[in-house]
Write the structure tokens for this entry.
Amino acid sequence: MGDGRRTRDPKINLAASGLISAIPQNRADWAVTAEGPVRLAMAAAEYGSRLVHASSDAVFSGARVHYDESCPPDPVTPYGAAKAAAETGILAVHPEAVVARTSLIIGHGRSVHEHVVYEPAADTRDGALFTDDIRCPVHVADLAAALLELASQDTADIHHLAGADAVSRHELGTLIARRDGLDASRLPSGLRAHSALPGALDVRLDSRATQRKLSTTLRGARQFCKAMP
């Protein structure tokens, strides 16, 4: 541009992602989730900045269960539709951007998915952890490191950053409970198929192609939820 503004400094967009907050699958702020990231991508392209956009496995319906980076989105919820629209718009206006799809994000006891376990284990919340709702959870530390790696690489397009293990919500809850010294037998189980909750049942992100580009290991839930001493 000739005005000294162009830069390759990477930008990572985490808006409307599980790294910041959990968004119900039946709700989505289209302006924030779909339109906002595209405007950010346009600005990043104008200034020559790298952009890594955090997306979600909610862009898939679960009809084919296993999804690699080549699979086209087929969302079944408003949130998934908004995330899919953001992906398409970002890559249209900024082809050098990275879209990084991830799954359930587990932290050090502070994620929404961990609190869903703590409350039933302490008899402070009703509800069930579904045995037929399957995802590939990722640890927040692994995800953050992988996002930084992608931001520093000369790569683009769609990448999957999910853990190596496909587990149900109930199995994940059991792993978390055991890790944190809780009584896993107190966790109620159920079938999502028998509930009125929207969204896919079984979505397994295949991250092997992206893993080959990374030094960060995307551990599976059975590994990162091992009981602590």
Remarks:
- The chain is about 35% helix and 15% strand.
- The CA atoms of residues 96 and 154 lie 9 Å apart.
- The two ends are 56 Å apart (CA to CA).
- Residues 11-224 form a domain with the Rossmann fold fold (CATH 3.40.50.720).
